[in-house]
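S.,

Sequence below, as promised.
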Amino acid sequence: MKLAELFSFVFLSAAALGALADPAVPSVERQKETCVIKASGTNATDDGPVIREAFQNCGHHGRVVFEATTYYVNSVLDIRDLEDVDIDIYGKLLWSTNIQYWLNHSLPVGYQNQSTAFILGGNNLRIDGHNTGTFDGNGDYWYSFISEQPVHSDFPGRPHAPTLNGLTNSVVKGLNFLRSQMWTLSMIYCHHVELNDIFVNNTGNSVQSSNTDGADTIRSSFIKFDNWTVYNGDDSISLKGNSTDISITNSHFYRGLGIALGSIGQYKGEFETLERLYVDNIYFENTDHAVYFKTWTGDQNGFPPNGGGGGLGFAADMNFTNMHVSALRASAVAFSQCTTFLRRTRKLHQLAFHIRDITVTGIQSTSNSPRVASLQCSAVAPCDNIALSEIDVTLSNGTQISQYLCGNVEDPRGFSCTRAAGEC
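The prediction came back faster than expected:
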């Protein structure tokens, strides 16, 4: 059967037919069409080709529909340069378990030598999962495979689930992500994008998942995360190099590390920033932290993704408010400017990356850690204008916690340091 016969083109009916006869209607509107993708129905047949063909035919001023069925994705998808498209996902996209194929064919993300199984990009896209659309990475196979490798963190070729690359002026909503292969949703060169009503569950059925971030922003701006629910084994949401004007609101995070700023400073001599983050009304349960900054050390040891350091830049102008936290595993607020994959480094706290102008207001928390905050900042660029207030953290037995560990923190506001050293 030919590829063209595996999906149907559904033209706009009465209105479209009238438009074709009316020369006053713009030609783009007259020609707008819908591609309904027909799944093969078997994992022995790759649905990647019909998915790619649908976007080729309806990727400009059109509509692409995934029906309420399972699509077997056995090959990489690189779908970019879309314009003014409605993408409706009612069914499930299920990635194959052919690990060797993905290790050898996954696509470069463009950051940290990472790779991905699916690139999607364009302008003015409206992606709607209608709360049923699902991306299933078959991650249990990956979690088992990675657990047996000498490098667990970033195994070369292990792909992210979908990567939004160059997505602008768009809305993504109502999607579910299950057992992602690695990072769930990475975003690079994306601007003015809203991501609403997203559910992520990367809980492994037999082996605990690792490095399964809920979302990561890279070289992106004006990104809004609202009403996310994330169960995972790493950063709940992470901002990486040159992420600016980001908001995270009305969300629930479980089992991961919390909201992460970084890691950053991984590229020697490269200047990167994290600026203007707004976080409000967040619920954390059984996470390491609520707020977590992590930068690399001052000297370069190895190369990304499993090494680096010596970067430049700053993180500034961030506000965290109204956070409700239960069963923290470590300090509620953590700054760790000492990330390295080596046990020893000559410049543990010497990174010239500056953290400043950070305000955290209103944390209600129970914790398994005796520390409210652990701030280990750079000795050559100490943290300043750090304000922590209205923070109420208790142990599970009700004992109030009051420890604030500070290394290279200048003029703290709203709190007093109880020890002159933070943790790495």
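The chain has two domains: 70-254, 257-424.

Coffee later?
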